[in-house]
Design goal:
six-stranded antiparallel beta sheet; homodimer; 230 residues; alpha+beta; four-stranded antiparallel beta sheet; 13% helix; 4 helices
């Protein structure tokens, strides 16, 4: 085991391109939730919450039209996190369904997908939006992004991720065909649809109410989602 | 910009689970190739090679039956790398085709996919194999893996990656249907089939002759592949 001096802003992707209110509004100092309390992830913002092994997190698509990018990290070892490419290899399927073990980059279950009241349309193929995405869409000033919301939501509770793992994009409607062609469409979920995940290990779950307002995935109008841990 | 002292083995995924000959057999001290020379990536091993902007790398499936996991890093900033989830969002397609820009996690082209003499079956969905994968397959001792070959091939030329990005799995035959079901099959490529990529920025390309010998993707017999930079 060696140590070294590093400039993290240079050698990893932990630094946000800008700041929004995500940094100033954690649900608590260290992200521990009040059990049973419903919290908002405001439109365009992110939130991080600790979910202890055995606890359940419910995430609700309050308005039905919103995509929620989601990540989960082993809170005791932030280099272990929910990984879409490992998940797909684990279940031999592209998209998650209730009953699935959601596995990490170390191929261990971190969450169990328990409940889905929506039609089950979620995405694992597409990277979370980031400042580079908005640059390519012609945005010149700062634009909120799911990647920055992840970084800021973790920073708000004293944590940091070196990388931006591929996200589980709840309710994101990205149909694909057997030839691999991908389309970007509006959600098919209804207001109040929710998903529930049971934590298999102590973890921190991060959610971003996707601020994408240029293409149609959020019906061009980002809205809040809500979550509860119990 | 801040600095800090870190124990890399704790806070990132840069350390291999074991060592194989990849560490001791770089193509040159810093990975610079002799232009026009054909190098071998031995069965079960990995190699890293610097490819300057404008140069072309040709990777040949010498025996036709072999999967080659491939990565590309911006050699001047190793936190920028070819990213499958960003690539799919860039081309609106799951799998790459000649003419595609292969983009990084910063959404910039790092390679251009120029030529493919094989039937075009490659994979972007599945994580590179790692020690955890072989543990779940019942292997108790050390097993060569593409993830470790990446780490070792970089270390052999004095570089390091903090993470193991999702790989471009050349010739890996993972058909999927529109419902998302995934299958694992043998390659459809022929001996001598090759792909060519042109570097858009100075990069280091890492290749691993996938050591998977338990499931059928390499016809249960890992073989070498070859590459040339010109």
């Amino acid at each position: 085991m060696t140590t070294e001096t590093l400039a993290p802003a240079i050698v990893d992707n932990s630094e946000p391109a800008g700041v929004n209110n995500t940094l100033r509004a954690p649900i608590s100092t260290d992200g521990t939730p009040e059990l049973g309390k419903t919290y908002e992830v405001p439109a365009r913002m992110g939130r991080a919450v600790r979910v202890a092994a055995g606890q359940t997190i419910r995430i609700t698509n309050t308005h039905g039209t919103q995509v929620c990018d989601m990540w989960a990290f082993n809170v005791n070892s932030m280099n272990e996190f929910l990984s879409m490419e490992h998940f797909r290899a684990w279940v031999d399927r592209v998209n998650p369904q209730p009953g699935d073990a959601m596995v990490t980059n170390h191929r261990r279950p971190i969450l169990t997908f328990k409940t889905d009241t929506s039609p089950g349309v979620h995405d694992t193929l597409i990277a979370p939006c980031d400042i580079h995405r908005y640059r390519t869409l012609g945005v010149e000033e700062y634009h909120d992004s799911c990647a920055d919301n992840l970084r800021l939501a973790l920073k708000a509770i004293g944590l940091r991720t070196r990388e931006v793992p591929g996200s589980l994009n709840l309710w994101m409607n990205i149909p694909f065909d057997a030839q691999g062609g991908i389309q970007w469409q509006t959600t098919v979920s209804q207001p109040g649809d929710y998903v529930e995940f049971v934590a298999v290990m102590d973890c921190v779950v991060v959610m971003s109410s996707c601020p994408q307002d240029i293409i149609v995935i959020n019906s061009n109008k980002p809205m809040p989602v809500h979550f509860t841990v119990f």
